TrEMBL record, chains A, B:
Cofactor(s) listed: Zn(2+)
Keyword rRNA processing: no
Organism of origin: Geomicrobium sediminis
Enzyme Commission number(s) from the entry: 1.1.1.23
Protein name listed in UniProt: Histidinol dehydrogenase
Pfam families: Histidinol_dh (PF00815)
Function: Catalyzes the sequential NAD-dependent oxidations of L-histidinol to L-histidinaldehyde and then to L-histidine.
Gene: hisD
PROSITE patterns according to UniProt: HISOL_DEHYDROGENASE
Family, per entry: Belongs to the histidinol dehydrogenase family.
UniProt entry keywords in alphabetical sequence: Amino-acid biosynthesis, Histidine biosynthesis, Metal-binding, NAD, Oxidoreductase, Zinc
HAMAP family referenced in this protein's UniProt entry, alphabetically: HisD
Entry binding sites for substrate: S230, Q252, H255, H321, D354, E408, H413
Length: 426, 426
């Protein structure tokens, strides 16, 4: 792991956004238009081709869900249940309220909060199974009171989904689980098929085909952010324990070769200890190969002159996950402008937030924490403005409104006011 | 204007999303990459080609702003000032607060609200000048406490911007106004040039080139929604005044030939009166030709059997603007699920919200009110999750977190917890 002194233009530290491969884009477009036209039939065909599954029915049955419980460890089930409770408790605080304001002249203005009607949650299939993803995507939608939540996930060659996926969905009360993955599942959610009603928003992670398909259908339906590779930055001074720092860097690096794990510190000695600890712990990891490639390609320890400079580095990186292991982490909270999730203190390992604490693990990647937020309840509601004017309010303000409209050359706008007021001559 | 009885599949009423012309897309891509590489030089060149202006400097001077006041009518200035005050007052209510929750075991979880660092506001040039657009895009960013707000707008052939644009910007305290438009302005905002620092988010309406450019740079920076043609739906029963309904339909229709103006009513007699009033008022409008084409192509009066059916039509249309002119409009507020702005009662003309009341006029079009919101203060802030665990909390929950991580095959995640707790043996 390289150690580098911070200097010069900090902006160069930012990672650039990756582009979607044009060949992926064109095959995704083909799949989308095929599913739009032929519906379930096209989905069946792609599921056979890509997943090797010949399905007689798209939907998971109640029996399948019940049977799945036999294959899930009791401790894992306890963890899922406790995590779900924590996530629900945290997200309940995010629910916005409809409000109104009134004025003496009879004016009422307001903002109405309404849940989306329907949401589709994409759950990746294959060898890696992430029940936590289901919790993080479904629970905020439930807290928002979305009426219809559909899950889609690609089946294996036997036409089955992983038991942990089924159990998690069942624990949350998700009824409709449609067995399909890839661009074909995104198309089915966006356009609908004979068996699947379309949804208004699609969330959840997926491979490049899923990401490209979501980008294509955006506008027709809403989507969540397109997730890039995962990132962690650990901001630490000489009070930090290098083994903890190293362990957390590696918990990020084991995700993906393209994951990025960076420590920023004011201490040369700590920097060296972190590097040594990373190497020591790396050798003991089952996913050593992946983690090592990530550390070699995107890992670094940056040494800053001052804590202020270190914070500036963090803000430039705008990391998905930020851990602060300094003497008084709360002192820095106000200075941290850009980070998806901020973990404060030495016991706040990133895993705590990934699985359990209650905050969402769907976070802005690739520096988009500069302008994006963690997945949250407001992503599953929308606002409507409310305007209610009295005759008194319109009489009083009508002339100003009309002159503003005429300045913009919109006569009918002016007349719509004047027809209702004493000025009206139309 | 056609009158139609509501029947059958209501979904067919929805308008479909328009696609961007591929030739526009490819020339936009070229402009973007050219500006990314050559910066100001490329912007200058495109400004000469497209706007006919040969600029010596990109930025509007203080003198230009001051001189502009001579060309703006006093009533208009009063209207701009009062509208700005109303907009600021309404949007102040939208500002979210950072919050925290604590638990007995020492856990602290929270959500931090941080303004974006910088925002670019696109203001269209040409013959139609919309000072109201500046108010609606700049004020929410100011309320959010965005530090740097840059305006861009294409100059005329003399290298000048419209006085009303300059005055409005000056009234709001916008300092940096960069004279450029089209895709080249979007590129300059997204990538930066020698004279213009890049921004984190680009908002504001524009022609197809601007829309296509915003779509392309999305991900690298954030953007607001891509606006489609404007829409109004007036929901009315036999208590409604047909002249008011007609006037409001026309205030929408005069915007654009592709604008859509629809009345939904339970009364046959009212439907006919609205049609006749539309024709009568149409003949007196300066923008009659545009409004007539809009009414002929996209205008309609739908007659529903019941108010409940009429509301269902509204929810299917998910209009940008909805006016409710019924005996008791508040009775219907809870039933209205999808609308960008809801105008209640006969004195709440759409113009009131377009210019003056305080709500935002940047609203979701083309049925996207199903999942999108009016432009608001939260569009200029982002959230960061806060997680702070105590040793006690980690000791107690560590085993569950570790077992969850192992279920997902992520050993390093489990170890990052165990290294800190009594379970730790690494």
């Amino acid at each position: 792991m390289r150690i580098e002194r911070v200097k010069g233009e900090l902006k160069s530290l930012r990672r650039s956004v990756e582009m979607i491969d044009p060949s992926v884009q064109s095959s995704v477009k083909e799949i989308l238009s095929d599913v739009k036209q032929r519906g379930d039939e096209a989905v069946s065909q792609y599921t056979k081709t890509f997943d090797g599954a010949d399905l007689s029915s798209f939907f998971v049955t109640e029996e399948e869900k019940q049977a799945a419980y036999e294959h899930v460890n009791k401790d894992v089930l306890r963890a899922i249940r406790q995590a779900a409770e924590n996530i629900r408790e945290y997200h309940a605080r995010q629910l916005e309220q409809t409000w109104m304001m009134t004025k003496d002249d009879g004016t009422i203005l307001g903002q109405k909060i309404t849940p989306l009607d329907s949401v589709g949650v994409y759950v990746p299939g294959g060898t890696a199974v992430y029940p936590s993803t289901i919790l993080m995507n479904v629970i905020p939608a439930q807290v928002a009171k979305v009426e219809r939540i559909v899950m889609v996930s690609p089946p294996n060659a036997e036409g089955k989904l992983h038991p942990a996926v089924l159990v998690t969905a069942h624990e949350l009360g998700v009824k409709d689980i449609y067995k399909a993955g890839g661009a074909q599942a995104v198309a089915a959610l966006a356009y609908g098929t004979k068996t699947l009603e379309p949804v208004d928003k699609i969330v959840g992670p997926g491979n490049v085909f899923v990401a490209a398909a979501k980008r294509e259908v955006f506008g027709h339906v809403d989507i969540d952010m397109i997730a890039g590779p995962s990132e962690i930055v650990v901001l630490c001074d000489d009070s930090a324990n290098p083994s903890y720092v190293a362990a957390d860097l590696l918990s990020q690096a084991e995700h993906d070769e393209r994951a990025s794990a960076i420590a920023v510190t004011t201490s040369n000695a700590l920097a060296e200890n972190i590097r040594d600890e990373v190497e020591r712990q790396l050798q003991q990891l089952p996913r050593e190969a992946i983690a090592r490639r990530s550390i070699e390609s995107y890992g670094a320890v940056y040494v800053a002159e001052t804590l202020a400079e270190a914070v500036e580095v963090v803000n430039q990186l705008a990391p998905e996950h930020l851990e602060v292991m300094t003497k008084d982490p709360y002192l820095l909270l106000g200075k941290i402008k850009h980070a998806g999730a901020i973990f404060l203190g030495e016991y706040s390992a990133e895993s705590v937030g990934d699985y359990f604490a209650g905050t969402n693990h769907v976070l802005p990647t690739n520096g988009t924490a500069r302008f994006s937020s963690p997945l949250n309840v407001s992503d599953f509601t929308k606002k409507s403005s409310i305007i209610s004017y009295s005759k008194q309010a319109l009489d009083q303000n009508g002339p100003l409104i009309a002159s503003f409209a005429r300045e913009e050359g919109l006569e009918a706008h002016a007349r719509a006011v004047e027809i209702r007021t004493k000025e009206g001559e139309v």
